[in-house]
Known about the structure:
By secondary structure, the chain is α+β, with helices and mostly antiparallel strands.
Amino acid sequence: MQLLNSRAAWLPPALRRALLADPRRELLRHVEATLLVFGGQVLHVETGAVTEVRGGPGMASAPALAACARELLGADHEVSILLLLPPAEFVATLADTPGVSGENLSSALRLQLDTMLPTVEAPLELAVHGSADGVQAALWMRSERIDELHEAFAAKGLFLAAVKPRMLHGQAPGSGLLEDDGGSLTFARSVGGVLQQWKHVDAADLEQDEFASQWEAELRAAAGGSPKRLESLAEYSDVLEAGAHSDYCFFPAAAVASRQRQQRRRQLLRAAGALGVVALLAALPFIFQQFEIRDLQRQLESKRIASASARADRKVVVDFENRWGAITSFPDQDIRQALFNLQRALRPNRLSSLEIAEGVIRIQGGSEDPQSLLQRIEQDPMFAEAGFSRATSNDQYHIDLRLATVNFEAYMARHFPDR
């Protein structure tokens, strides 16, 4: 599969998307049944059939939900299911990452998880709108709960493709949706498919006047109007819409792996066919060029024979350069001109010692102003890297400088690289 991905990366985007479909999108595309859980009941959205969850209201166990699904669907064959769960199953955080999208956005939010939800230690799965820019809400769900649901449905011969907050399976008015299932209240508002607000509170907390007033204030600020209230299973029929808010689905790892296995053979066949066509098209110019290549090879051989004497002469020149190059290309230090320039810079100061070796000049002598002397030497374009080599008093100087026109380092690197 990795080989296929690496090869397909060179293909045009349209062809690459056809060969390597997103397994999560494919899972949603093949959903056959949508089940909505509300207040101790499970609704089969496509048929309108309803059944009771054993155990009553609250967070139903995975086996109980799987049993309801089998009762509603009835068929013995495996059915791909989208399960719409209560808001209490999810936790929301605000995401403000301008300019970040796609996998980079998911990675950035996961890195901030310890800061946003410091008390949560269990592994969490993330659902967020991947292409939105600006402030939005990101949803989290326990990985263990998702896997538990998938395994329970599999034990009943059903295939749980994805789970999703039931409030996001439809289009809500601009003021959002306010759900009251008896155990908790949840407000959600989205704009253009992007979840902007998600607020959740337990009904027991609202029994305290302080919490109730705070909830009302936050709700008015977030909604900006009168949100549509959902208090029963029947009221959901007005807002449900297949395919809405698909970015906020959670996918069991086993379901994604299963879809990848199903797609692998088809992808490999498609990729092999596409790569075969691409290879054939790419090879056609080479096939037509074979005759030209053979003719050029014959011409090259004839020119090689004709240039044999010139190449022999070149070899003589190269051998001469290798033998005598170290002498002929020895850097010219132009001692005469260097002494004239140095004399002009030193006048009227005294010079007691002078050494020249490999483009480096070392001088010492007496001067009433050594710093001024050093500046005059630095201003001469023939000299470079001038500096005091030892401590200098007010009447003595020790200066090292280099001839700017001489490069002994390059000469040594060329002719004596091992030195």
